[in-house]
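fyi for ur records
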Amino acid sequence: MKVFKDIMSGDEMLSDSCGEEGVEDGVVRVINIVDAFKLQEVPFDKKQYQAHIKGYLQALKAKLEADGKPEAAAELVAQSKSVIAGILGKADELSFYMGENLQENSMVVLAEWDAEGIPTFMYWRHGLVEEKY
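which gave:
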């Protein structure tokens, strides 16, 4: 099993073994990733997310460089502008989640909902570290 952690907070964010299961009558349906990893929904609007992501990306870039990964830091900077523009363009349609510790400079996971109410989660790949169990 692989678990992916936020390299800034150490919070577990997702796993390769978090799948869908059937739901019985009378059982409350939850989003497996949110439930299993105790992600906390945060009420960001566009302006709040923009402020957070600026600080997060600066901290992540510094962490990658300190960890001896200058290529990853450069790739993050090169790709982040266009990604952020796309996110901000649909910020009102997204849900925002943080790890259970709600650490200030940690990753905010984005959830985009389709017409059937099924979320697609988006992570900053440079902000995750893989651990095998």
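Helices lie at 32-36, 46-66, 70-89. thats all i got for now
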